[in-house]
Write a structure and sequence with these properties.
The protein is an alpha+beta fold. It folds into 2 domains: about 90 residues, Endonuclease I-creI (Roll); about 120 residues, Roll (Endonuclease I-creI), CATH 3.10.28. Helices cover about 35% and strands about 25% of the residues. A hairpin with a 2-residue loop joins strand 4 and strand 5. About 25% of the residues are buried.
C-alpha cells in the first residue's frame, strides 16, 4: 500500500474498534477482535508496508463481573510518530471520538471494509420466527455524537454513493445502508472481508430480488452455503 492507501486502511480501523493511545510525540495503537483472521490480515498488511513494531496477543475466554467473554486477539503497535500526527483528527481535547473534515476524505474501500468488519452487521428481521421479511444493514457508530454521525453519513453518500440514514437507538445513533445501495456496498467491501466474517454480507433472500444483479446473487448463493454462516457471532461483545 502507498501512503494514502495506508491512511485509508487505518482510518477504517480507527472508525471501528481500533484506538490510538496516549502520548505526546509518539502514540501507540491497539485493536482487538474475536476473529483471528481479521487480526492476522491487519498484521500482514501493515508488515508489508510499514516499519511499525507490532505484537499480537491471544486472550482466553473468561468470566468477568458475571459476564462471559469470548476469547479474542489483540494487535498492539508500539508508539510511533504516525499515530501522534493522526490523533487530533479522531479525538478532541477530552479524548472524545470525533472525525475531522480531513479524515472524512481519507477512507478507502479497504478502510470501509475494516470499519464494517469492526462495527457492521445485518439484522434479519423475522429470522427468529423463521420468516425473514426485512434486512437492516447497519454500522454501529455509538462512540460518536449525532453531528459526527451525520457527517459520516454524508461522507458515505458523497465518497462511495451509498444511500443511508441515521437511525436513533436509545440515546445513540447508527448508520443504516439503504436497500438500493446494498449491491454497491457489497461490491466495495467484499474483496477485503475475511472468511470468518463473510456472513456479515449475507442478506438472506430465498429468491433473487428483481433489483439484484446476477453476480451479486451468485455471491449470495455462495454465502448461503458457506460454512462461515455457522459461526455467526453477530452482536457478541469482546469486553
Amino acid at each position: 500500500m502507498h501512503s494514502s492507501e495506508l491512511r485509508g486502511f487505518l482510518t477504517g480501523l480507527i472508525l471501528g474498534d481500533g484506538h490510538i493511545e496516549s502520548g505526546v510525540t509518539k502514540r501507540g495503537f491497539k485493536i482487538k477482535s474475536i476473529y483471528k483472521d481479521f487480526i492476522d490480515q491487519i498484521y500482514a498488511e501493515l508488515t508489508s508496508c510499514t516499519n511499525f513494531q507490532m505484537i499480537v496477543r491471544h486472550h482466553d475466554a473468561q468470566i468477568r463481573d458475571g459476564v462471559n467473554h469470548k476469547e479474542y486477539w489483540e494487535l498492539s503497535i508500539k508508539s510511533h510518530p504516525y499515530f501522534a500526527k493522526k490523533y487530533s483528527h479522531f479525538y478532541d481535547d477530552y479524548k472524545h471520538r470525533i472525525v475531522s473534515k480531513y479524515a472524512l476524505g481519507w477512507l478507502t474501500p479497504y478502510g470501509l471494509a475494516n470499519w464494517y468488519m469492526s462495527d457492521g452487521y445485518i439484522c434479519h428481521v423475522g429470522k427468529e420466527k423463521g420468516d425473514v421479511y426485512d434486512r437492516r444493514l447497519e454500522i454501529c457508530t455509538d462512540r460518536y455524537n449525532f453531528n459526527t454521525v451525520k457527517r459520516l453519513s454524508n461522507m458515505l453518500v458523497n465518497r462511495f454513493q451509498l444511500g443511508n440514514s441515521v437511525i436513533k437507538r436509545g440515546n445513540r445513533y447508527r448508520l443504516r445502508i439503504h436497500t438500493d445501495s446494498y449491491c454497491q456496498f457489497i461490491r466495495l467491501v467484499a474483496p477485503y472481508i475475511v472468511k470468518s466474517m463473510e456472513y456479515k454480507l449475507y442478506l438472506g433472500y430465498k429468491k433473487q430480488p428483481l433489483w439484484m444483479p446476477d453476480k451479486i446473487w451468485e455471491y449470495q448463493e455462495y454465502l448461503r452455503s458457506a460454512t462461515t454462516l455457522a459461526g455467526n457471532a453477530e452482536g457478541y461483545d469482546i469486553v
